[in-house]
Amino acid sequence: xxxxxxxxxxxxxxxxxxxxxxxxxxxxxxxxxxxxxxxxxxxxxxxxxxxxxxxxxxxxxxxxxxxxxxxxxxxxxxxxxxxxxxxxxxxxxxxxxxxxxxxxxxxxxxxxxxxxxxxxxxxxxxxxxxxxxxxxxxxxxxxxxxxxxxxxxxxxxxxxxxxxxxxxxxxxxxxxxxxxxxxxxxxxxxxxxxxxxxxxxxxxxxxxxxxxxxxxxxxxxxxxxxxxxxxxxxxxxxxxxxxxxxxxxxxxxxxxxxxxxxxxxxxxxxxxxxxxxxxxxxxxxxxxxxxxxxxxxxxxxxxxxxxxxxxxxxxxxxxxxxxxxxxxxxxxxxxxxxxxxxxxxxxxxxxxxxxxxxxxxxxxxxxxxxxxxxxxxxxxxxxxxxxxxxxxxxxxxxxxxxxxxxxxxxxxxxxxxxxxxxxxxxxxxxxxxxxxxxxxxxxxxxxxxxxxxxxxxxxxxxxxxxxxxxxxxxxxxxxxxxxxxxxxxxxxxxxxxxxxxxxxxxxxxxxxxxxxxxxxxxxxxxxxxxxxxxxxxxxxxxxxxxxxxxxxxxxxxxxxxxxxxxxxxxxxxxxxxxx
Length: 579
Known about the structure:
single chain, mainly alpha, Actin-binding Protein, T-fimbrin, domain 1, 4 domains, 69% helix, transmembrane, membrane, actin-binding, Spectrin_repeat
């Protein structure tokens, strides 16, 4: 699958493609097209070229031998896609691996050590793309435990935006203990060519600048024009390719101080004029070879130092990007958490709460304080990241500082509001506890007093039947005794009502809105006052009733005594007559 996709990525330039790699190359036509495309020249001596590149039996390719065909394609891939990869004078495979390691070094969870298991989780592919085209990949959202998604994401982005066809299958890579090394190398080499091609012009410019800075005389003055053009004549444009010998074999040969180009063997290279247009005698003095050698060393050191500076600067900028994104994420999470918190802390719901409600509010506030303490670390991290961004000269430091300052100021406000609300809740709790105790005392005294008034009203309205003056006088004495207790009862009533007034005073003074109902009794001050007024009304009525009955009994007693007196006179007379 990988080799087929690689071949089709080149054959499409010729307007064709293959479907079965061991069948479609049997007649040699598409194989010739493939070689013409990738070598950029027509192969008039096709079979001679094949024999030169691939020491294989062509008859087996014609017969459709899959193993031989795949071996031939792998040889082509090595020759045209991998062999020209060179990083710091390493072999093609080692150079490609070193290139991958350098490009993916700053990325977490990526450790490229080979071309098989190091690529199974898909992060290395995504890291390569993100390193060169960060706008295509949201690397921070990738998870190491989701390799299939990572692989498919890299394959789709590479195919859509980088014109690199999909050569691998995500499920095959994940489900294989050791993915095929040749397939991985083939696919990764496509990334190398895609990205290194885009960097040739900037690298060439850097090389030319380095040369212009390094090729100066021992006193810091540039050599004459003819003295500085000789490397161009020597290398045929070599300065563009001398950056650590990355692209031109000439650059590698120039590293060897003991070997000059063959055209100059046996001659003093400084005695050769540009293009050999002037005789030697007319040339101005040339620098000595040891001066050139020293200048070359300075050039190499300058380029090496510049490359190291570039790498360090890239790492710094990547670090800055990572820190800035981390700052934005943490700041956004914190801002989302703080949304609505100030309004919550400013509300005065405790003013209308009961004692049980205020205890629930206190428990809720304690939970919020724990949450607030847990977010303290996040605020400190945000401040630390902002400080580090400032120390690293982040270009957008003003906006970062403004956002950080806003977060810190808001954090201070939240802390102050939290403290104030706790004090208000605790103060209200104490006041409600005092009010609750007063309500309980009121209930304990109001209930028996209410029962006493109800009994008194019953007694004052009780019908009485008497037959003698003694009985009515007994009732009057009892009533007088009852009236003598009324002042004490009135004091008790005032004390009970005073308890209620004290509770209300505390509530009003502290802006607490009581519900109006005593949780311990249904006897309200209004009920007590109403019944007391009723008792006050019944007492004089009872007085009149008893006095009327007393007068009646006194009249009856007078009549009884008068009757007895008359009876005592008439009785003996009647007795005498009867005898």
